[in-house]
């Protein structure tokens, strides 16, 4: 009798143990299945399924909003170019769709140019989608082929430039004038005499300047060399065209010691080269070694260090923060 009882106890214990093991195994499998299911719902899993590596998926999640990731997942395959675009310093998420659209039509362009052109609106036709220039920005006012001043705009604190520093009657803002005098005096120590050849123009004067070029050379050349009224930096009172006593034309100033000096030192006094060489596709104007724009020493130094145009600076550091 005792033997039968013992067998029943052992059998019961065996079934109990087996049940516990079964429950444990089922629980583990259930947890595993649940975890797998949860992982399959993540962006990482979905991006990897599209062909991205784990590292690339992590980068996309770090730099893109959920809305942008969802749009990316709607594409039929992995979008290689987006990873290069994300690595660009001046990348702006708000422009991602436009970057990709512009790239598909311009695959020969670098990702730097794609980002720069879209940010500055230079992917559009010049004088298209024009906005009102924000005059509240002071020395950082942007006026170009996409940002226009009202025809009645007049800069504050315009002051006459003494003949010692210029040819003819010239005006610029007081702060620009003071910065120029400091730069003039420093340049003089290197036997360089800076001369302001052109400065402030009102809307009507700019209109006359543009029309004369247009009537002589046609619209295409006029637009490459001069701004339409309302779109000229000279209307801000912050821009000066500079020559020296020896190099007195737009054709030879780029070969002067004065130009080399300005490239090296102008930022120390708050001036930037506004239309540099090889940046015509961003500024909309041919290379102008003589055209210098006042923005203040801190910003001028940053623009020089980063080797960008003022258009790029404005798009990334000012417009993007508004």
Strand order of the largest sheet: 5-6-8-7
**Sheet with most strands:** 4 strands, antiparallel
Strand content: 5-15%
Mean pLDDT: 89
Order of helices and strands: HHHHHHHEEEEHEHHEHEHEHH
Straight-line N-to-C gap: 92 Å
Annotation, overall tally of beta strands = 8
Shape label: elongated
Short characterization:
The protein has 14 helices and eight strands. With 322 residues, the protein is an alpha+beta fold.
Describe this entry's structure for a reader.
The N and C termini lie far apart (92 Å). It is built from 14 helices and eight strands. The radius of gyration is 32 Å and the shape is elongated. It has 322 residues and is α+β, with helices and mostly antiparallel strands. Helix 2 crosses helix 3 (54-63), helix 6 crosses helix 7 and helix 9 packs across helix 10. Helix content is 49%, strand content 10%. The mean pLDDT is 89. A four-stranded antiparallel beta sheet has the order 5-6-8-7. The chain has a two-stranded parallel ribbon with strand order 1-2.
